[in-house]
Every structure is written in C-alpha cells, then in structure tokens.
Amino acid sequence: MSHLPVLIPVTLLFSAFIILLGGFLKRDLAFMIALIGGSLSFVFSALGLWAVISGGGLRYHLGGWVPPVGIEYALDALSAFMSTVVTLVGTLVLLYSRRSILQEVPERFVPMYALAMLLLAGLTGIIVTADLFNLFVFLEIASLSAYALMAVGDERAPVASFRYLILGSIAGSFYVLGVGFLYFSTGSLNMADVAQRLPNLYGSRAIVAAATLIFIALGLKMALFPLHLWLPDAYSYAPSAVTGLIAPIMTKVAAYAVIRMFLTVFQPHYLLDVLPLMPVIGWFAAAGIFYGSIMAIAQTDFRRMLAYSSISQIAYIGLGIGLANPMGLIGALLHILNHAFMKACLFLVAGNIRFRTGQWEVSRLAGLGRKMPWTMAAFTVSALSMIGIPPAAGFFSKWYLLLGSVDAGNWIFVATILLSSLLTAVYFFRVLEQVYMRHSQEETVPVNAADPPASMLFPTVLLGAGVLVLGLSNNLIVSSILDVVVMSLK
Amino acid sequence: MRGSLENVVVEGVSRFLVPFIQIFALYVITHGHYGPGGGFQGGVILAASIMLLRLSLGEEYEHRRFSPTLATVVAAVGILIYAVAGLLPLAWGGNFLDYAYLPIPGLSAAELRYHGILIVETGVGLVVWGTLVILFDHLMGSEP
Amino acid sequence: MDSLIVDYNYLMTASLLVIGLYGMVGKRNLLKKVIGLNIFQTAIFLFFIQGATKPGATVPVWDVRISGEAAGYINPLPHVLILTAIVVSVATTGVALALLMTIYRRYRTLEEGTLLERMKQSP
Amino acid sequence: MNWITGTVLALFFGLLVYAESDLPDSREASAPARTHIVPRYVEQSYPETHTPNIVTSVLADYRGYDTLGETVVILTAGIAVILILPRSGRRQ
Prior knowledge:
Shape of chain C: elongated
Low-confidence stretches of chain D: none
Largest interface: C-D, 47 and 46 residues
Distance between the termini of chain D: 45 Å
Number of domains of chain C: 1
Structural class of chain C: mainly alpha
Mean pLDDT of chain D: 86
Number of helices of chain D: 5
CATH architecture of chain C: Orthogonal Bundle
Oligomer: heterotetramer
Strand content of chain D: under 5%
Radius of gyration of chain C: 21 Å
Number of strands of chain C: 0
Number of strands of chain D: 0
Largest sheet of chain C: none
Distance between the termini of chain C: 61 Å
Structural class of chain D: mainly alpha
CATH topology of chain C: Helix Hairpins
Number of helices of chain C: 4
Order of helices and strands of chain C: HHHH
Helix content of chain C: 55-70%
C-alpha cells in the first residue's frame, strides 16, 4: 500500500465532489458520504502511522516525477501522527454535527458538508505535503472553506468571518512572498531540497526575510498572541458544530506547519543561532498564555470563554516550540493531541448546551449537572484536563513543557506554566460551580433540558473518555511516536 | 435592474457574438498546448459568454437555458474529470496523476501525457466555467 | 552594481506591497480592504514574474530554433506558480464580496465604525 | 492611520528593502532559479510530454497536483458563495 500518503487527502476531496453531486438528490446522503469519507481517511492515516512506526517514513512522488521536479508527499512520524489526530477528531465531530446543523442552519445542509470535507482535505494536505508551494494551495483550500463555514452562524458572524478573511489572506500572501524569497534564493520548492541548499545561504538577507514572513504568516494562522485578533469573534459567532470542527484542529495544523518549517526546512541551527526566531515565539507565547487566561476569566459567555482559553492553550504549544529542546517539543506535540481532544469535547459540550437550552451564558448554566449528567461528566473530565490534574491528558503535556523549561533553565516559563494553571482553574471552577453547586431557577433553564440525542452525546462522551485514555497512555505515545520526531534535536 | 433593456441592438449583438466567444473559448482551451491559453483562460471566456447573455437577455430567459443548478453540475463534473484522471493511473500501476499510466491503448508515454494534459485542462475549463457562473448568479442575485 | 533597473522594479513592487497592506489594515471601509487585498496580491504576482525575466530570452514555448537550450527561454516556473496564485486570489475575492453582500444587507453599511455601532445596537 | 499601522507598514517596507541586496539577480546566469530545476523542465518538456508550451506542461503535468489544488480552490469559492448567499426567495 504505497499509495497511502496521497489517499489521505484525496479521499476527502473525492467525497466533497460526490457530496456536491449526490447531496442534491437526497439531503442525508451528504452526511453519509462525509462520514464514510472521513472514516476512510482516518483508516488510511492510521495505517500510515502504523507503517511509519514499523518501517520508517513513506515518500510519494505525485505524477511519478522524482522530487525536486515534481511534487512530493512525505509521511513521517510527525505528519502521520498529525493526520491521524486531525482525521479522528474531524470524523467524530462530523458524526456529531448532523442534528446540530439541522437545528441551527437546516437549509444549508449540503454545501456545509461539502465545505467541511474540503476543510479536512486542505488540512490533511498541509500535513502530508513536502512541497512549499503545495502547502500554500492546501492552506488556501482550508482557509476558504473555514471563512465560509464560519459566516453562516448568528447575525454578527459574517463580520467576524470577513475580519478573519482579511487577516487570513494577509497570512496566505505573506507565506507566498516568503516562499518567493526562498525560491529565488535556492531555486527549489521541495522542502528537503531547500533544506539541503540553505546552509550555504545562512548569511543571506533574503533568507531572513523569507523566514520572518513565513513565521508571521503561520503565527497568524495559528492565532499566536499578538496575532490572535480574528479568533474570539470567529469562534463565538459560528454555528456550534463548525466551531467544534475548526477550533480543535485548524490552529493545530498551523502549529504543525511551524514545527515542520523549524525542523525540516530551515533547520534548528538557523532559527536558534543565526536568526533567533524561536525564542521570540517562546516569549510571545508566554505573554499569550497570560493574556488568554485573563481574558477567559473576564468572559460571561461560555463559548467566548472557551475561545480565549484556546488562545492561551495555543500559546502553550507555541511555548513548547519556542523552547526548541526535545522535552519542550514533545510537550508541544503532546499538547496538540491533548488539546485537540479537550477542545473538541468542550466545544461539543457547548453545542449540547445550546441544543437543549438555546444559550451560553455562564450564569444561566445552573443546575445542568443533574439535567445533563453525561454531557457534564465529559465537560468535567476535559475541564480538569485543561487545568492539568492527573491522570487526565492535560497534565502530561504540561509536565513535559515544565521539564523542557527546566532543561532550558528558563524559570520565567516555569512560573508561567504553573501560574496559568491556577488561572485556568479559576475560570473552569466558576463554570463547574454553576453546573453542580447551584440550583436551577425555572426561568433560566428549560424544564425539559436533558442530555442530547445519542448521535450528539456519543462523540462528546467518547472525546471525554479519550482525554482519560490519552492521559493513561501518554508514555506509549511519547516513546513510540514523539521520541522519533524530536530525534533531530538531540 | 437588468434584463429589461428591450433594446434590439444590444440583444441582437450579444446573440450574434456569443457563439464566436464560445468557439474562441474552446480554441483557447485546446491551444494551451501550443501557446498562451489553457483551461483557466478558456473557462473564464466561456463564463463570460454566459454572463453576457444574462446581462443582455435577462435572467428569466437565460436561467432556462443555463440554470444555476446546471452550473453547479458542470463544475462538479469538471472536478470529477480531473480527479478520475488522477485516480485511474492508480489502478494501472502508476502514481496519482501519472498520465503515462492512463489506460488508452496504442500510445507512447509522451503521447499519453499529451492527452492527459488535454483531459485535465478540459476538466479545469468546466470547473472555472461553472464556478464563475455560480459566483455571478449569487453575487448579482436580488435580496431575499 | 548595474542593477539599477532591478532595484527600481523591486522598489516599485515593494511600494505596491506596502500600499496594499495599508489598504487592508489602515482603511476603515470594508470594500477598500478588499481592494487593498487585490493590490497586495497583484504586487506579489509582479514580484514573481519579474524574477522570471532574462535578457534576450523568449517566452517558454518550445521553439525549433532554440530547441532544448534552457538559456533561450525565460523561467517558466514562476509563471506556473502565479497562475495558481491568481486563481486563489480570484477565489478569495469572490468569497470576500459574498461576505460583504451579506454584511451590507444586514447592517446597510460597509464603514467599520458605523458597522460596529449597529452591531452593538442589534445583538 | 494610527501609529501601530504606520509602524507595521514601515517595518514591512524595511524588511523588503533589507532583503533586496541578497536576492539573486535573475539576469545573471548563475541565479539559482535559473540553474537548479528549470533547465530540466525546459530540456525534457517536449520529449516527455509532446507539449511545446512549457508553462502548460509544468502546470498540468510536472506540478499537476498544484493545479488540482487550485481547481479545488475555485470550486471551494463557488460552494462558499452558495453557502453564504443562498438564492432562495429571489423569485417573488
């Protein structure tokens, strides 16, 4: 099965086209095709991950042209890991989405699923590609579908989406400009080939411009503080299923691209010693952790609180990347996985609350603990994981980040991680208190509020359980996959 | 706003021009092998011919001849042509999009690539044609 | 350095990039932001295309008089990349205009200040 | 224009000017963009694809996957517009 790398995105692309043709015949066909496409792509990713663990990386030459001439796809430990995470979380959210979309935007069912598949295809394309320009093309597929999906939420959604479009297009254009500088300096677009030719050009100012532009672009896409301005509005006005799909994976894929640029294209030596961009990312991330946590405490809207918490959690990943030592990078990668599960679970919980009660005000969640026991159990597990209480998964990624900071001798980062856990505890315990300790007043929560239908409850609970399972099996994940990824740093 | 011009000159000229525009678009698509041209450019010209008809003859009339649904189908068929041209070589032992493995008997690898490019450009032309008509229809649509 | 012409071209491209970026982040009208985006992207196309030029070379279409002599043709790769980038730019503009139509229908304005006021009034 | 915008624009322009001096001049035969992959395209394009237009052969064959991607981009824009601006209710 040497075709695995290309099958991951192409399956998703193909299902999007079939949805476009078949969805107009019967509406539910769109949902079925999307689910089948997503699951197939997950199976291919998992097979790819297995192949990588047991036999090393897979390289695939599109069109049969040997790389630098043609476009290359590469499935190594890092990309196989990421594509498995993205397709798994994506498929679970797709399973969840049907009832939620039927309630919120029923008349736009078919194009929504086509775009959701294109979004996933774009994201997996970014992950498996080994070509700088091909990455841009798939970045734009993912971004365009995200703008459109986010625009159909409530009244203010188009404005938030437009702001995201402008900032996202700046990011895309900066990226192309950076690739242009790289291309004219090295003559190549293939990542491995560029990396091979870069060491001779380490003194070049054009490479400085290329690296700066590319990292600003990816920082914008990743919503790394202070480039996060598009995120809170976009996340809080979009339909709940869309936020559930985009929030856990899209910013993580941008973080992956940052790691890919750091490890594969520019090489650690350049970004640490010649042009120290990585420490800059680390310090901005440390500021972003505080900013996100403090803003989250100030929010009264549950989904907006989650959005700001996303900024803070993304900054954790940025901090791990900025540390640029093996422990820090393991922490960042583990946090990508854990946060994808936690945030997906939390946004699905938010969707469940909206499905049953129609609102998200934290002050009006009182008493839901008894009315929606399963949803709130999943919420509790994820919230504890976000705070970093073992054995939930969040603890272990923060642990590795702490170890990385200690290794780097950076005590400010250590203090940041510890303090921000306290801040996270503040905003989540406030919600937990409302949910479990307060008694519901009749006028705030509908009497019939209960757990949502099985198709929505199952993915929520599964993701919540996943947070625990990931926490318990973190040792296995680190030793079998992530250790291989950070090998080049040692 | 549009379509109600009832001007015989505008109507006659656009009816007269459209076939030429479309023939020229086909020429541009197929001439992509030998000079400037190709699927994108040809697709845009095809879409322009449809837009000219919509502007001059009015949407009520024109929607019957080239409906928005047909535009969507054209775009989806175009992308499927491209995707199938990519997937077929997989079954015949090649890599994705390796036109040399297209199952057309009696041609050398270079000729297969030549025809593969033509197939792909046709698909691209259909997609651009359909999509630009969709964009036009939805952006010009009156308020709900 | 006899690169005065190149410098001049490059500086013009850089100015266009800055003008486009100013349109996107400095202008308060949403439509002007889209125009700025288009200027910015077009300047990027210009950056790539001017990097493809060579003195005395012809368009990259196989010519029997030159046949396979690479020095005789200008660099085809930037042209290919820019064809892709143009399509991306068209697609982005289309989606941006669709969003602007929706915003205008809802709030009857495209000025950022007025828009923010009206968004606060009707939650 | 406030001072943040001004600073950002000035920094951006400064970066572009700063990078100019080390950007290889495309008129010199030694420029990497002229020596690395492009000669391979120019020399082999006609023998390998029978297509005289090298831009077309690179676009649709050597880098055909990019073109699939860009076709998907334009299709995405079409679906996006269908999603954002539904045409329902236009017929009274």
